[in-house]
Amino acid sequence: MSPTIYMIILSTLATGTIITMTSYHWLMAWVGLELNTLAVIPIISTMHHPRSTEAATKYFLTQAAASALILFSSMTNAWNTGSWDIMQPLTPPSYILLTMALAMKLGLAPLHFWLPEVIQGSTMTTAFIITTWQKIAPMSLIFLTMNNLSTSIFLLMGLLSSLVGGWGGLNQTQTRKIMAYSSIAHLGWMATISSIMTNILIMNLLIYLIMTTSVFLSLIISKSKTIQDTTSTWTLSPTLTIIMLLSLLSLGGLPPLTGFIPKWLIMEELILQNFNLLISMMAASSLLSLFFYLRLTYTTALTLSPNTTQTKFKWRFYPNTLTMFTTVPATISIFLLPMTPLILL
């Protein structure tokens, strides 16, 4: 793909998200989501491989179905209330359809089946875009319409997503699929808090984006597509190995690191709302996620290849623009916890 076309596609992607985030009319929000979908499909299918074609087709079908549901729910609401305003109260059929559509857009369980397959059929960079940038527009719609959506449906979906994200990632060997199930688990935590306290939702989304960016950039630089590939990261750069180790532990939510902030605040808020059983099950499911993060950190930093490799080790590591971009998200995703009182003020 030529640089000009790639720039046009990326600018369309950015424009679609901005239109959705800034619109107060359902039709404009739908237009933004459609621009987003149409921009990502050529990015997925650039590899000219059957897997990428299959991933692009699956992505198109699920996103088109979700967009159609959003349009149908907004039309139903406009028919009943006479208003296309996003901030207007929704009728019960409209908000149930909208909840399902946004869950499908994000990849929340039980509508998550497309996400691991699409990410596995994409390149690392495309998987990074799908798991980070593509979550912003649907999340902004959830933020705008949260007073009208069903709390119980989001709590149930959040619990299901955290369980599915934990169980699904256990038997994976591909780093892209592990990151896909990680995304499902994190979105589950966001879904549970979305209807209770939206400022924690925004902070959780920002921290998730920064942590996922840090891990994906580390995987892209080290060219680690499978767990076995991560065993040779130390030959590329010891510093990168340490960054990847700490970023993965932060993504798992271990206390000294940044990833513990959203889990801590969500657990505290749900306990205050007397959702004790729900938060106990979610905390248990996060241990499943932590297991496969720990497995990745173990192979990255604490193991060597069991056999003598026949290839030349890559000791000479030449920094490039991508490595410079990695430092900021890596630092934030590791050391932000001491600044939590300042964030909450």
The number of helical segments is 16
Termini separation = 47 Å
Shape: globular
Largest sheet: none
Kindly estimate the percentage of residues that lie in beta strands according to DSSP: under 5%
What is the mean predicted local confidence, pLDDT?
89
Low-pLDDT ranges:
none
Structural class: mainly alpha
Helix content: over 70%
Q: Which value, in Å, is the CA radius of gyration?
A: 20 Å
Quick one: how many beta strands? 0
Which series of helices and strands comes N to C? HHHHHHHHHHHHHHHH
Family: Belongs to the complex I subunit 2 family.
Keywords: Electron transport, Membrane, Mitochondrion, Mitochondrion inner membrane, NAD, Respiratory chain, Translocase, Transmembrane, Transmembrane helix, Transport, Ubiquinone
Transmembrane segments: 5-21, 59-75, 95-115, 152-171, 202-221, 233-255, 275-296, 317-337
Subcellular location: Mitochondrion inner membrane
Write the layout of secondary structure elements.
Layout: H1 3-22, H2 26-44, H3 50-81, H4 92-106, H5 114-120, H6 124-131, H7 136-145, H8 151-168, H9 175-194, H10 198-222, H11 233-236, H12 238-252, H13 260-272, H14 276-301, H15 321-335, H16 340-344
Helix pairs in contact: 1-2, 1-7, 2-3, 3-4, 3-5, 4-7, 5-9, 6-10, 8-9, 8-14, 9-10, 9-13, 9-14, 10-12, 10-13, 10-15, 12-14
